[in-house]
Amino acid sequence: MRFRGFLVVLLCVCLAVTLVATGCGKKEAPTQTTETPKEPVKIGGIFDLTGATADVGVPYAHGAKAYFDYVNSQGGINGREVKLIDIDYAYDKTKAVEVYNKLVKQDKVAAILGWGTGDTEALKQIIATDKIPYISGSYSEGLLDVTVCPYNFLVAASYSDQARAALKWIKDNWQGSGKPKIAFVYNDTPFGKSPIDDGKKYAAENGFEVVADEVVDLKALDATSQVLDMKRKKADFAIIQGTSNLTATVLKDAKKNGLTTKFIGLNWAADEKVVKLAQDAAEGYIGVIPFAFPYDNVPGLTAIKDYLGSKGGKIEDQNQKYVQGWASAMIMLEGVKLAGDEVTGEAIKEGLETLSGFETGGLAGPVTFTADSHRGSEKVRLAEVKNGKFEYLTDWFGYK
Amino acid sequence: MAVLFAPAAKAKVAAIIVFFLVLPYFVSPYFISVVNLIAIAVIGALGLNILTGFTGQISIGHGAFMGVGAYTVGILTTKVGLSYWAALPLAGIMAAMVGAVFGIPSLRLKGLYLAIATLAAQVIIEYTIIHWTGLTNGSAGIVIDAPSVGTMSLADDKNFYYFALLIALAAVVCTVNLFRSRVGRAFMAVRDRDLAAAVMGINLLQYKVMSFGLSAFYAGIAGALMAGYLRVITVENFTVEVSIQYLAMIIIGGLGSVMGSIYGAAFMTLLPIFLRTAADFLGAFLPNVAHFLLSMQTALFGLIIVLFLVFEPEGLAKLWKDIKDYFRLWPFSY
Hints:
The complex is a heterodimer of chains A (about 400) and B (about 325).
Chain A: H1 2-21, H2 31-34, E1 41-47, H3 54-73, E2 82-88, H4 93-106, E3 111-113, H5 117-130, E4 134-135, E5 152-153, H6 159-173, E6 181-186, H7 190-193, H8 196-205, E7 209-215, H9 224-232, E8 237-241, H10 244-256, E9 262-265, H11 272-278, E10 286-289, H12 301-310, H13 320-339, H14 345-353, E11 381-386, E12 389-392
Parallel strand pairs in A: 1-2, 1-3, 3-4, 4-5, 6-7, 6-8, 8-9, 9-10
Antiparallel strand pairs in A: 10-11, 11-12
Helix pairs in contact in A: 3-13, 4-5, 6-8, 10-11, 13-14
Chain B: H1 7-22, H2 29-54, H3 62-80, H4 84-103, H5 111-131, H6 133-136, E1 142-143, E2 148-149, E3 152-153, H7 157-178, H8 182-192, H9 194-199, H10 204-230, E4 232-233, H11 240-253, H12 258-285, H13 287-295, H14 297-311, H15 315-329
Antiparallel strand pairs in B: 1-4, 2-3
Helix pairs in contact in B: 2-7, 2-8, 2-10, 2-11, 2-12, 3-4, 3-5, 3-10, 4-10, 8-10, 11-12, 12-13, 12-15
């Protein structure tokens, strides 16, 4: 009975805190009209720090947060402080809706840096109604239709464009006889399937032979049957759309079974972690790289180095996803800068749409947005793993 | 309608309804958006409680049945051209039919075996949705227009609130009355002892399948509301985690209790918000604790369910009743 009493008190406290947290009882005045130029610009962040994709989500979020910090240390945007209100949604699509509502309706953020394909797709209609510019970690082709999602912006080549670029590179470098045989390796989610149809279409138009579709789970620890199927069908190349874990599993099983297939992974399948997980099985693996590695020699990294140095950190400790988060935040805040003093969702959207060949100092491809196209870039680089490190095979190029 | 008995009870119900009607004028829009999610969860939880709490049949396919409802709305509005309002009841009926089909094995299977059979329903439905791309757009999902009444669009949280409230209220009233009818009593007889129920002349197959169908009907309506709220229908919103979450709702709220379904749905929606607020608050003093608490969220969920099962198996509904009784009888609590 005493325990039951404790349970009651605990529940009451929970309820009280939650009601205060959700703003019960107070009706907030719209801040848009009363905003003075001195107030900080609020940008929301929906990140995955503890969920299924936390391995890449944490460095991405740190990179984005670091850029906001960096901008504030440089005097902010148009003389105003920028504030990133970030929430961990643990890659839970139902929670993403609630988190989004909090950011937009309670915190009144002007724009949002998001994360996954599933939740960004699920929110795209609400985003359009609320007029919240949204830059997500997902580069799904489904977010590019400006009539359906006019407020979604893709800062890098879409998954489809990445797949097409990889195929174009294969075509240009194909020395074997006959048609190159292609396999697609992906997982059965909106993220995984996003580039497959477009990739197959491009392959068919450009004289490839698509021999296999291999579905591998994101958390798979074994892909032997899929790998053997590719061996049987004599695939020359395989395009992987997945995360580091899936890719490492496929590469390891491919080596174990003696495949000669050349694997090419799209951006979430190609990072330092794949090399770490797959060890020597990753040798010769090719990645489609839309963002710079921390060890690259590009001017944009100087700011990151200086920032981390001032915090007592080192750029060597960061990975490519950190750079990706930093660059995404940079592009978002460029839109805020162009929006001028009246920072609303519409103004940021218009600001972003005037970006033309915006340079992040080599951290990402030059970004261009127009009112009809939110395809920020279609350019990528390819890099091959040599001695445990990605080395660039090409300069920035697009499939067109 | 036998919900209302005495004038005092009538006044209480009227007060609650008035409270909910004026609520949006006193709270922040974010609060309303949270209530909207709770209202959808209440409908789904009521459905599962009819099946699990009242009929004693377990189901791990509830999330998929919600998906059937949502996709029915999506397909009927975009491909057939029906309005959302016409598609809404059809979504419930479609889900009910699918639910009834997957309920047939319940005649032979009980307990754990039935749980696994309904898990199969979840997997089969998910697979069908992802791979029948011609009908469902596969994993890309379906985008629908915001439903509206005249000039009032449900894209507005406040309008959606009244709509969801109406449906949730109807669901509650229907459920309460269901258990005053022969059908509801038959469900409970099946739960308590199916053999005895059969001896009393209850057709087990008929009532078990009916319970599955009815439960899936609620799920379908909840799914259709979810579709109307998000206006994007993707399979990822109806995974097995959703099914488990609904089971947790009715266990925490109280199995076999209508009010329990409401408390459970509210609790499960509010708990993550509470944990986040607590983490933010603590983070100001102890930066390391905040991150720890966030990653503990799932574990904490589990812990709470265990605590409830051990100390209050009848859930929040019983807990609330105990509190009321305590004050009603005070100071003579014997």
